[in-house]
Every structure is written in C-alpha cells, then in structure tokens.
Design brief:
Radius of gyration: 20 Å
Number of helices: 16
Low-confidence stretches: 42-47, 223-231
Order of helices and strands: HHHHHHHHHHHHHHHH
Number of strands: 0
Distance between the termini: 32 Å
Largest sheet: none
Strand content: under 5%
Structural class: mainly alpha
Length: about 375
C-alpha cells in the first residue's frame, strides 16, 4: 500500500485520511462476501459461517442490516470510549504484556474445549499453527506470506465448499427485518466495542475468536450450554460486526496511545508520521465518523443488490469464479511459491469445514507462532 503513495501525488496528510477512510469502509463492507459467497451445503453450514444460515433461510438481507447497524454503532461507541482509553490502554497494555502467555493459552484452551469434536479442533489449530510458524520462517516478506496463507485458510477453502454444494439458488426476502431489539443491538454492539479494544491489546486474536469467547461466557452465565450458531446467531453477528469496526478504529488509536500500530494501515501511518499528535488523532476520528455514516449506506446498497441477485445467481458458478480470481491474484502477487502456500493452506482450511468445528481454530497460524515467540522458542 505504501508503494502506491508516490503514484497518487498527494501529501502525507491526505494519504493518511485516505487510508483511514479505506480501513473504516472495509470494516463495514467485508461482511458482504461472508454472507453471500462460498455458500455451502446445508449439512455443513454451521462449520463455515453463521451468516450463511440466515442466507439459506432467505434472510440474507437481515444479516446485511444487522452488520450495517452494528458496525455503525461500533463507530459511535468506540469514539465514546476514546477519552477513557487515554487512561486505561497504556496501563492495560503493560499488564497484558506481562501475562500474555497465560492469557493466550487460556483462550486457545477455552476455544478448543467448547467444541464437541475437540480432536478435530485441536488438529486444525496445530496444523494451521505449524503452517504459520513454517511460513513465517521462510525468507519472504510478511506480505508474500500472509496473502497466500490467509487466502487459502479462509478464502479458497470456503469458496471450494460453495463449489461442492452444487448449482443452487437462494431467493431472499428483500424486506427482511432485523429480529433483534434495538436494545439488543446496542448491548451487543457495546460488547463488540469492548472486544475490539481487547483484540487491539491481544496479539494474534481475531474478532470472531473474541466474539465467541464473549458469547460462551454469556452462555455459562445462563448456566446452559447454548449452541452459539443456532440460538444466538443474530447476537453473534452484531457483536462481531461491531468488534470488527472497533478493532479497525482502535488500531489507529493505538498509534497515538501506545505508539504501537496494530494493523497494516496503522503501520503505514506510523511510518509516515511517527507518533501522531492529538490534533491529527482528532482529525482521523472525524474522518471515521463521516466515512462510517457513508459506509452504512454503501453497505446496505451493496447488500441489497446481492440479495436481489441471490435468487437468480448460480452460486456454484459465482464461487468458482471467485476461486479462480483468488488463485490468479495470489499467483500474480506472490508467484508459484505463494500459490503452493495457498494450496496447502486451503487443505488445512477444509478440515474445520468438513469436520464441523469452527474455522476460528485456523487462526492458530498466528496464535501458535505468537505463543512460541513469547515463550522464547
């Protein structure tokens, strides 16, 4: 991304605004592919993505509206957290660094033990972890490693499941309303924003993993083992959508609060400016608010377009086209060796899809190397 800066012929401040706007927009619209692409067979839907369950029920537009609202609420709540974050984040960051190994170990153990098929979950975690550790020790840049690694684990594997499902059409209710109260939307968006702060403090943890931890803790509080995907799918989508947007925002806040960037965009901003000052932080916050409001409507319009096409689109062909495009992108950007990494990663990514465990265990590709790093291995 930094390589395109000279081509844009704009000053560094305008480029920072552009990057912030892009990160905010992406945190909204990246739910569209997860809702409408790579739709699997009904028998494996719970092992792929929770949002697909709503799509198969003809309520894909509800998933779009939930994620749009939750992302927008995530923007509002995250900005409301900012004054508190000035005091809490530096202290919490120091404390987390001291206890990072037991925290990550507990999170890994908890996520695996919540599964009915724990051996498959453990196998997914270990294989993806070994794959990630191996790739990170190859003499390649991180971009040449992460693109094929994540494309295979989460992109190609999901699209292949969509191809395997066969030629199907999924008519949708264009006017599908959100079956979650306004209070519930705010409540789980608030939890998601808190989770976004935690993701910023905990290295290698993904938004969906923190969302699952929060949801499972709630199930324990209710003294019942609740099937997350079956009973709380709307709450989960709300939490993860808000968490995803909050994570994108806190990663930029972290450049000021901790002088420690937590995302690719924030790394570029730090390289351009060093530690940003309070006035630049205020300006970037204003950009997030304006772009967040626009992204809400963009997300709804794109989702509405896909929803209307869902009853006429051949999802097998769409998934096949997406598969070929990702393969071509990986090959053009990382070469034959990158394509090999993507194919191996895809095989590992198919394990949770076929075994019925959560795909979040494939985040072992980052969690295990991070854990080993802090253990000094």
């Amino acid at each position: 991304m930094l390589s395109i800066f000279p081509l844009l012929k704009i000053d560094t401040l305008s480029f920072a605004v552009f990057l912030t706007a892009m990160a905010t927009t992406q945190s909204f619209v990246d739910f569209i592919p997860s809702i409408f692409l790579g739709v699997p067979d009904e028998e494996t839907v719970l092992s792929v993505l929770p949002s697909h369950k709503l799509l198969l029920e003809g309520r894909g537009m509800e998933a779009v509206r939930i994620t749009a609202l939750a992302s927008l609420y995530g923007v509002i709540i995250s900005l409301a957290f900012l004054p508190i974050a000035f005091y809490i984040v530096p202290l919490a960051y120091s404390a987390v660094r001291m206890w990072i190994v037991p925290i990550l170990a507990f999170a890994i153990f908890f996520l695996i033990m919540r599964e009915k098929k724990r051996l498959w979950a453990l196998l997914t975690f270990l294989l993806s972890g070994y794959l990630g550790w191996t790739c990170l020790h190859i003499n390649l840049s991180t971009s040449d490693v992460f693109l094929p690694l994540f494309s295979g684990l989460f992109g190609l594997s999901g699209l292949l499941m969509g191809i395997q499902a066969g030629s199907r059409f999924y008519p949708q209710e264009d006017d599908a309303k959100v079956r979650l109260s306004e209070r519930g939307l705010w409540r789980y968006s608030f939890l998601g924003a808190v989770g976004g702060l935690l993701v910023g403090l905990l290295p290698a943890m993904s938004p969906s993993q923190v969302g699952i931890l929060f949801q499972e803790l709630r199930a324990m509080k209710e003294r019942a083992k609740i099937a997350l995907e079956e009973l709380h799918i709307r709450e989960f989508l709300t939490m993860v959508a808000s968490l995803n947007t909050a994570d994108a925002m806190f990663s930029i806040f972290a450049v000021y609060l901790m002088n420690n960037p937590r995302s690719g965009i924030s790394v570029i901003i730090q390289e351009l400016f060093g530690r940003i000052d309070i006035w630049m932080l205020i300006m970037l916050c204003a950009v997030m608010v304006v772009v967040g409001g626009l992204s809400y409507f963009i997300h709804l319009e794109i989702g509405r377009m896909f929803s209307r096409l869902a009853g006429r689109m051949n999802f097998q062909r769409i998934s096949a086209l997406g598969f070929l495009l990702v393969v071509a992108m990986v090959f053009l950007m990382t070469g034959l060796f990158g394509l090999l990494i993507a194919m191996v990663s895809m095989m590992v990514g198919l394990i949770p899809a076929l075994s019925g465990v959560s795909r979040t265990h494939a985040m072992g590709c980052l969690l295990l190397p991070t854990l080993l790093f802090f253990l000094g291995v």
